[in-house]
Amino acid sequence: MRASAPRWATDLNSATIEAAHAALGGALTHATELVGEVQLHVYRDNLVAALTALRDTPGLEYQQIMEIAGVDYPDRAERFDVVYNLLSVTRNHRVQVHVATDEDHAIPSVTGIWPVAGWLEREVYDLYGVLFEGNPDLRRILTDYGFRGHPLRKDFPMTGYTELRYSEEEKRVVYEPVQLAQDFRTFDFLSPWEGAEYVLPGDEKGSLPQAKGAQTPLSADAIVKADAAQTPTTEPKASSEPYEKSTAESSGDTGAGKPHPHGTPEPKDPDVVPTPNADKSGGQNQ
Fold first, then answer.
1. Is 55:63 a contact under the CB 8 Å cutoff?
2. Distances from the Cα of 264 to the Cα of 257, 274, 286, angstroms
3. Quick one: how far is CA 221 from the chain centroid?
4. Chunked in runs of 10, what are the mean pLDDT values of the chain (286 residues)?
5. Which domains does the chain have, with CATH numbers?
């Protein structure tokens, strides 16, 4: 039975690159095939025209935008790459469109082609600080109100700038500058190849006799089986008990207990006062 969708094949990559060169023309800086995927690098000002051509040109037909991702290269003059991941449903093929920019120059928004790109552009703006010209609602979407900086930039500190906690005094969540609870320490981690030069807690169990049938790292000559050595035992001095007493210092030792201070039976309910009755026809209080 044939699948309803065409099979994805890497041999489409060469034809896709040729068709992209013919459709995009001067908007395309270069095209490469990396890790089995096609990467098209286009100029920033020609982005909208290039994506429209990739969507409408027969033989390409990338109808859907699946994701917009950001990449940070701090050593470059245009440090950011915005990557548009497109999917062709009819050809079952994907392509990546790369656009380079910096934090000052805005990228044209593609919400006119795919309205869903509005939220994707907001994510890139929030996490990297890339501006999108023409986005009708360009604001943060993942970080909190008043957040400083863009957390996926390579120069953003791992600890951030602020931390939040619940204040019992103010009865609300408050923001404070980051304060590390302890300094970074040098930990002595145990190497699984070299081993430690000291005895760790619990290592002494390795020298104890092994339980019968238990796994052990010791060699066969060093193993002491559980039934190899028996603890010496002695016969009890009395047949009725495992030990024998020569003196009885209390009534508990002889087995004769003291009488209970209340000889008569007590009712279960302490509020009920039993009344004696000769014929036993009445109730407890009759």
1. yes
2. 17, 11, 19
3. 46
4. 55 90 92 92 95 94 95 94 95 94 94 95 96 94 88 89 89 86 58 62 66 60 56 59 55 55 62 59 51
5. 12-133 (3.30.460.80), 144-179 (no CATH)
